[in-house]
Amino acid sequence: MSLAALPIFVRLGGRPVILIGAGEPADAKRRLLERAGAAIVGEDVQASLAIVALDDPEPVVARLRARGVLVNTVDRPDLCDFTLPAIVDRDPLLVAIGTGGVSAGLAAALRQRLETLLPAGVGRLARALEAAKPRIRARWPDLGDRRRAVGAALSGPLDPLADQGDDAVARWLEDAVGAKPVLLRFTLTSPDPDDLSLRQARALAQADRVFHRRDVPSAILDRARADAVRIACDSAPADPGSGIAVDLEMAR
Question: Which of 187, 182, 199 is nearest to 239 (CA)?
Fold first, then answer.
C-alpha cells in the first residue's frame, strides 16, 4: 500500500512562510506558524511554503505554484500540496495526526484522545534519554543490543505512558545488566489488528523476530516493525534467539 503523503517535520525557525488571507482561518494558521518560529511574509517574498485562506484561492494558488512554492489551502484539500496535522505537543515530543485534508474533525478527535493518554512528563523522559546517550552507548556498544535494551525499557520501567520521575532513566541504567533475550507469547482471539491489546501492539512494534502460525493474518503481521523477521512455524520456538521475539497463534 502506498502512502497518500509523506509525513515530515520541518524546522521553520526564522524561515519565511507566506500567509495570505484574513479572518479566523488565517489567524489560526498565523498562531501556528508563530509557535513554530516562522517568519510570516506576503506573497511577493521568496519562500518555499505558503498558506492560503481565501474564499476564491485558485488564482493565488496558481501563481504560487508557478513559482515552485508548496501550498496549503484552507478547506480545499484539492488545492493542497501539504496539509497541517492536528498536534499533540509534549516538547520535544510531537505527535502529528493527519488525514490528508479528508477530515480535520477526525484528526482533532484523535488528538484530544491522545492528549489524555500521553503524560505531561513524556517530553522530560525524551530529554533524559538524550542526555543519557553516552552512558547507554558505553553500556551497550553494539547498536542492535542498544536498540533492544532501550526498547525493552520503554516496554517496562520506562513506560512512556506512565508518569516517570526525574531520575527514572538514571535508575534504569543503574539496574540494567544487559538486554536479556525475551520471548513474548500471545494467543489472538481476533483476526482484526484493531483488536490487538496495547501490550500486543507494543510488543510487535519492538520485536526483532515474529514467530507465527500460518493462520495468523498478514494484517496483524504488518503491525510488526518493517525490519522484523517473520518466521512461520507450527509451534513456539525452543530457541528464539537474542533480543525480543514474539510468538503468535490464533485461538482455537
Answer: 182
Domains, the chain, ordered by start: 16-84 (3.40.50.720), 122-175 (no CATH), 182-250 (no CATH)
Q: Which helix (H) or strand (E) holds 150?
A: helix 143-154
Cβ-contact 201, 248 below 8 angstroms? no
pLDDT tens for each residue of the chain, 252 residues long: 678 889 999 999 999 999 999 999 999 999 999 999 999 999 999 999 999 999 999 999 999 999 999 999 999 999 999 999 999 999 999 999 999 888 889 999 999 999 999 998 999 999 999 999 999 998 888 888 788 788 888 888 899 998 888 899 999 998 875 556 789 999 999 999 999 999 999 899 888 899 999 999 999 999 998 888 999 999 999 989 877 899 999 998
The pTM of the whole model exceeds 0.90: no
Query: What span, in angstroms and rounded, lies between the C-alpha atoms of 77 and 57?
Result: 12
DSSP string, 7-39: ------TT-EEEEEE-SHHHHHHHHHHHHTT-E
